[in-house]
Amino acid sequence: MSPPNRYSAWLGSILGPPASPGALRVDRGPPGYISATQQSAVTMPSVTTKNIKFTAQGLGASCKFMLAIVPPGEDTFRTTGMTPVAWKVFSLKDGESYEVTWNDRLAACRAIIDKSTKSGNATVAAVEFRDFQAKKSSDLLLDATQRYPAYRFSDLVPLRNSERARVVNKAGLPVAIGAGFITDDSAGEEQMNVVLASNPVSNRRTVDVDYTPVLKLWANVDYEESQLLNADISRVSTVWEQNLLDVSGSGATVIIARDEKGKITNVIPESGNLPTPEEELEGTDVLAVKYTATLAFSSPMLVMDGLMALTSALGSVGQQSSQVASLFKESSAEAELTLTLGPGFSCKDAQLAVMKALTTIDAVFSKTYIVGHRGAQLLVWEDGLQIWMDINLAADAWELTTFDDGTV
Fold this sequence. Notes:
The protein is mainly beta. It is built from four helices and 25 strands. Strand 19 and strand 20 form a beta hairpin.
C-alpha cells in the first residue's frame, strides 16, 4: 500500500464521522509531526477578546521588545511548574505601532521542546491541542495500538478545590505540556498560541495550569519567539504589565517612550531637568567619592536597557544609598557606569556590588564584562569649580568608606 493511502487510513481512524462533539481535527504541526486539534465535547463560554496596541512616541532609535504572559503564582519558573514562553518579539521605532490579540478561548497541548537551538534557549511548539477551561481536568492519553500511535485528551471533568486547570499525563511516557489560547490564522485555520510550558512530566504525574493572563513587556532582552524564558527575567524591570482581564472594553493602547533618564517606559516623559548627583550633594558635608566601571556588553542594542537593569539590580545588593549615572556612545557595545557613593560605601564595596549585580542580569542580557574601573575623590568645590583626585586601586583609600562628616 502506498504511503498516501496509509496516511489517509490513519487520518480516518482518528477523525471518525465528521462534526461529532469532541472529535479531532488534524493539522500539520512542526516538521515530522501531525497535530490533532480536539474540539471540546462541552459547550464553551463566549469568547472575550482584548487587542493591545503598542505605539512608540519619543522612543528614538529602533528597540527590540518581548511580550510574555506570566501568571502570578509562586510555582511559575519552578521545575515542577509552568515556564512562560516568549509569545511575541518585535521591534519599534518612533511612529511605529505593533498590535497583539489575546482571547480567553483557553487551550492545552502536548508540547515539543527543542533544546538544540543555537542560542541555547529551548523552543516550544504545540502538537495535539484542545479547548480547555479553568477548574477543569483532562487526561493526556496515547493509543499505541494503531500503526501510527496517536495522542488525545479525554473529555473535561470538573476539578474541585482549585481555580486552576489540570492535565494528567496518562500517556505511559514522559510528556511536556503546553498551555495558551486558540486563534485563527490569516487562512482561517485554528492555531494555538503557547504561552506556558512544562518540563516533560512522568506518567501519572499532573500539571496544574494558571491561566491568569498577566501580559508583560520587556525591552531589549535576548530572546526570540517561542523560546522558554529563564527565571532571571523576573529580575528585569518590565516596561509595562497588565492583567488583560482588567483591561476595559475591547483593548488598550500603550505609549512607549523614554523618560528623562533614558529609561524605556510606558509613561510619556514630563518636562523639567533632574539635578545631577553632584548637585544633590552640594551644600552638604558629605565628601563625594565616585566609582566608575567600564562595561562591555555583547551588543550595542543591549547597552541602554542593560544599564537600566544593572542599576535596578544594584539596589538589591547594598548600593541603595548611591547615585548612579551612565555614559555610552551610539553604536558602541561599551558604556561607563558611575556611582557617586553615599555614606558608608567604599570603591571596593561598589566594585563588589557591580560584580554581583552583573551576575543577576547575565542570563537576560548575555555576558557582560567589567573591562576597567577607577575611583575618584572630590577635593574642592567652590564657585562651580570641582577638583577630583583619582583613587589608586592599590591604595588604602580604595577600601575606605565615606562618612557624613566629610572624612574617609
